[in-house]
Amino acid sequence: MIRVAPGSRALRSIGTSAGNWIRTSGYTRKWLVLGVVIGIVAGLGAVVFYVALSEATQLLIVGIGGYHPPTAAGDGGAVGSREFTRPWAIPLVVCLGGLVSGIIVFTLAPEAEGHGTDAAIEAVHRDPRMIRVRVVLVKLVASAITIGSGGSGGREGPTAQISAGFGSLLARRLDLSPRDGRIAVAIGIGSGIGAIFGAPLGGAVLCCTIPYKEDFDFEVLVPALVTSIVSYTVFGSFLGFGPLFGYAAQDYMFDIPVQLVWFALIGVLGGLIGLLYSGTFYTAVDLTHRLPGSRIVKPAVGGLLVGLMALVLPEVLGSGYGWIQQSMGRGDLTAIPLWVVLLLPFAKILATSLSIGSGGSGGIFGPGMVIGAFTGAAVWRLLEPIAPGVPDNPAPFVIVGMMACFGSIARAPLAVMLMVAEMTGSVGVLVPGMIAVGLAYLIVRRSGKTIYRAQRENRAEARLAPG
């Protein structure tokens, strides 16, 4: 006979009582309570991951590797450098980070492999109770090590999985209905991403659109607004409320019609490069799964290759947000060699595919921002000396590049537009950005591709899918 400890019985009793209270509550009371609770945990989870990643970066790529990357304004605004004090150490550190991450993931929770957002989206569609607590903890540690050692990845995937995992835990412990469980996991995804990027409105809209290629779940929107602002408030209370990239283009005003031509060009390039990003990334994923050898070792091999790339292009290391920051200033951007600006979008695609596509742990949203930013920066560098109407400051082109490239391939154009505008404090860029994002999205939509394989076509398809 198995005896249950009195403490466990008490916790179960509390969970049962809370579940009964939630299930019998009306829509408003239910989602005010659940939204606030999920928002608090999403914000705290984002804080924990941010601190873990910062410490891992200082220990690994800075301390051991001897490389000081630039940082975004919201992360301190360090200028950084393209130089290495110990270049021989860089490939070793990135390789070691991939190896340690692989050991942690494939020993403890293999489903924590990769970028994590697809796993959360799959939980929305298939089973909102499926995300294990262990996966959340493994994802947090493995991602901090992967990115902190120089692997090319973003910090949004882990935070999305942390908060989505808590929504999944509530679905189990409170015995939520399948629909309420799906809403809890969905708002967890957007609130975690919105918190760590300082973009609560964009995060709320992302909750509603990221599960689908061609749909928007309005039932999720109101709970998402509550959860997203709470998570952003919690995160900001610990780490500050300013935009991640400062107020990069706050003085920009669209008043030169010919600029639409250049923004349209960014949109076309953004859509095509977004397709290249998705295609290269999943080619790496599929090839990694087919290749013989231990799954533990493959992220280490990917890390070694990224470390070797970084000896030529250090911009591929880590999240790369500091390089986005530098691309927004005229002086900083013109100081970067032109060949680096032109090559970096493609190099970052390859580096992310090797780091995360090989089985490493980290997000793909953040690298998509770098890829899009330098697409816009490249257009500005080439056109500024010869074309009419090009702004003196590259920031509008860089910002629109981010919107167009990742907004299109993520099949979430409105959400990503809002998020990038919040991250850069640049609402005025939304006006010309619409033409770029619209064209990029049409190109990607025609191809049928997406960066998130777990997305369903629409809500009707999701209802018909197994589970």
Features:
mainly alpha; 467 residues; ion transport; 0% strand; Cl-channel_core; transmembrane helix; Clc chloride channel; 19 helices; 2 domains
Summarize the structure in words.
With 467 residues, this protein is mainly alpha-helical. It has 2 domains: 6-243, Clc chloride channel, CATH 1.10.3080.10; 259-459, Clc chloride channel (Orthogonal Bundle), CATH 1.10.3080.10. 68% of the residues lie in helices and 0% in strands. The protein contains 19 helices and no strands. α3 runs antiparallel to α5 (133-148), α4 (117-125) packs parallel to α6 (156-173) and α16 runs parallel beside α18. The longest helix has 38 residues, at 27-64. This is Putative ClC chloride channel. It is found in: Membrane. The chain crosses the membrane at residues 31-53, 88-109, 183-212, 224-248, 260-280, 300-324, 336-358, 364-383, 395-421, 427-444. It is a multi-pass membrane protein. It comes from Rhodococcus wratislaviensis NBRC 100605.
What's the tally of helices?
19
Characterize the overall form. Answer: globular
H-E order: HHHHHHHHHHHHHHHHHHH
Helical coverage, percent range: 55-70%
Structural class: mainly alpha
The percentage of residues in β strands lies in: under 5%
| CATH homologous superfamily classification of the largest domain | Clc chloride channel
Brief synopsis:
This is Putative ClC chloride channel. The chain is mostly helical and 467 residues long.
Write the layout of secondary structure elements.
Elements (H helix, E strand, L loop, with lengths): L5 H18 L3 H38 L24 H20 L8 H9 L7 H16 L7 H18 L4 H19 L3 H10 L8 H22 L19 H32 L7 H13 L10 H7 L2 H6 L2 H18 L9 H19 L11 H15 L3 H12 L5 H18 L11 H6 L3
